[in-house]
């Protein structure tokens, strides 16, 4: 027997809100932070033209500048998990 209607509706609302938050994260990562990262990359390139940067500094910069490429798949995977765990079973019951 499934839980009462309030618990089901509460869980559904929570999943929708969580999915919306993940979409917002993608928007922020892809739009807002991308501009900031491009500006920072320009500064690093300027520094590289005028001074020596140690390997550990270059590695840190690489980690920083590739962060969006690494985080976006993680956010998408979490969104997919929400879909598989919550919405897909509901759709199977309907269909």
What would the keywords be for this entry?
single chain, 95 residues, mainly alpha
What's the number of extended β-strand segments? 0
- Give the uncertain stretches in residue-range form: none
What's the tally of helices?
Answer: 3
Name the structural class: mainly alpha
Total domain units: 1
Distance between the termini: 19 Å
Global morphology: elongated
User: What integer is the average pLDDT?
Assistant: 79
| SSE run | HHH
Sheet bearing the most strands, described? none
Radius of gyration: 21 Å
The residue fraction in helices comes out at: over 70%
Strand percentage, roughly? under 5%
Description of the molecule:
- The structure is a single chain.
- The chain is mainly α and 95 residues long.
- The chain contains three helices and no strands.
- The longest helix has 46 residues.
- It is elongated, with a radius of gyration of 21 Å.
What can be said about this structure in brief?
The protein contains 3 helices and no strands.
Topology at a glance:
Blueprint: H1 5-50, H2 55-65, H3 67-94
Helix pairs in contact: 1-3
């Amino acid at each position: 027997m499934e839980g009462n209607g309030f618990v089901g509706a509460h869980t559904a609302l929570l999943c929708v809100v969580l999915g919306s938050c993940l979409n917002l994260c993608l928007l922020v990562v892809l739009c807002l932070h991308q501009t900031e990262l491009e500006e920072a990359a320009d500064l690093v390139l300027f520094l590289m033209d005028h001074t020596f940067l140690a390997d550990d500094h270059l590695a840190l910069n690489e980690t920083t500048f590739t962060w969006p490429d690494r985080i976006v798949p993680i956010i998408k995977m979490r969104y997919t998990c929400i879909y598989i765990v919550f919405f897909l079973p509901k759709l199977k019951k309907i269909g």
